[in-house]
Amino acid sequence: MSSKFDQVDKPPHYNWLPNGIETKDVTVHFSCMTGSAIKYIWRAGKKQHQDKTLEESAIIDIQKARRCLEYEIERLRNCGKLSKKEATKDHSSALRNAETRLPGHI
Question: So where are the chain's domains?
Answer without folding.
Answer: 23-101
